[in-house]
Design brief:
CATH superfamily of the largest domain: Medium-chain alcohol dehydrogenases, catalytic domain
Number of domains: 2
Number of helices: 9
Radius of gyration: 19 Å
CATH architecture of the largest domain: Alpha-Beta Complex
Number of strands: 16
Order of helices and strands: EEEHEEEHEEHEHEHEEHEHEHEHE
Helix content: 25-40%
Strand content: 25-35%
Length: 328
């Protein structure tokens, strides 16, 4: 079968013929219809997320069940599914409590520590799958399972947003940032997009209530930083209103920031992080998409035969929204 394979860290991802996967105990094989591509895949390519090579990459998957491994129940051939990005045990106290991203027995990332979904087929743990509603297209499901589920977790678990609040999004034109804006608006918030790229800023006009190049004198109830550079983190803290919350979603290793603790004490500003989403978050996100409360933003499409073009688009960082690769 055809698959996008990273042969060694820091090398290009190439389309290669590999043996089709076989479902082991507790696994299913999926026929992949579509796979999303974002900055996480570029970080995986460089080795920043660990794992090993050679590796079939990709984790934002929309597909159908093709085969069941020994011991798998609750799924049937033909079921439309997506999957969690994380390999979690489903049994520890964190998983049982709904905070799967803090799993004590975390096994890594799909497409990094095990083969991923930029391929015609993929074998995955059955307990990580999530059913896709009939009303949701598989390409939208693939985007929802990461680029929308991540903001959903931010705005429900880390900094719950109510109608009438103001949410500022730093890096609003990116694949996650534009969907932070979409989820926040679905919850009734006023959204301020902060984006330095003029082309992306122009495209954001219909997704945000206001678009700015810099935070400036902005004071928002929630500030979501999807960039996490020294400059963006400093701006995020400065843009938080009294009693506000700064949520860091993206991260860059080695970045440090000097902070004046005054607003943290006198204005009770909270700074926290948010790590991906749980399967329950994925289900809730797919429901929002099914009810047309949130619309996935697909900015570019590539065939599997041009997976290198999809990677170049990610590296150029010029696409508004998410990039998808059509597998069929």
């Amino acid at each position: 079968m055809r698959a996008a394979v990273l042969s060694a860290f820091d090398s290009p991802v190439r389309l290669t013929d590999v043996p089709p996967p076989v479902a082991g105990p507790g696994e299913v094989v999926l026929d992949v219809a579509v796979c999303g591509v974002g900055l996480t895949l570029e970080r995986a390519r460089t080795g920043a997320l660990g794992g090993s090579t050679p590796r079939v990459v990709g984790h934002e998957i929309g597909g159908t069940v093709a085969a069941l491994g020994p011991g798998v129940t609750g799924w049937a051939v033909g079921d439309r599914v997506t999957t969690s990005f994380y390999l979690v045990c489903g049994r520890c106290r964190w998983c049982a409590g709904g905070r799967e991203t803090l799993c004590d027995n975390w096994g890594g990332f799909i497409g990094v520590h095990v083969d991923g979904g930029l391929a015609e087929q993929v074998a995955l743990p059955a307990h990580g799958l999530v059913q896709v509603p009939d009303e949701v297209a598989l390409d939208d499901a693939a985007i929802a399972a990461d680029a929308i589920a991540t903001p959903y977790h931010v705005l429900t678990a880390r900094a719950p947003v109510r109608a009438g609040r103001t949410v500022a999004v730093i890096g609003a034109g990116g694949g996650v940032g534009i969907h932070v804006a979409g989820v926040a608006r679905a919850f009734g918030a006023t959204v301020i997009g902060i984006e330095t790229d003029p082309t992306k800023a122009a495209g954001l006009q219909s997704h945000c209530d206001e678009v700015r190049e810099e935070a400036g004198d902005l004071r928002a109830d929630v500030v979501v930083d999807t960039v996490a550079s020294r400059a963006s983190l400093t701006a995020a803290v400065g843009a938080a209103a009294k009693g506000g919350t700064v949520v860091v979603v993206g991260f860059q290793g080695g970045v440090t920031v000097e902070l004046d603790p005054t607003p943290l004490v006198l204005e009770e500003v909270t700074i926290t992080g948010s790590r991906y989403a749980s399967r329950a978050d994925l289900m809730a996100t797919l429901d929002l998409v099914a009810r047309r409360r949130v619309t996935p933003v697909i900015g570019a499409r590539f065939p599997l035969s041009d997976v290198e073009g999809a990677y170049r688009a990610v590296q150029d960082n010029a696409v508004l929204g998410r990039i998808v690769v059509d597998i069929a």
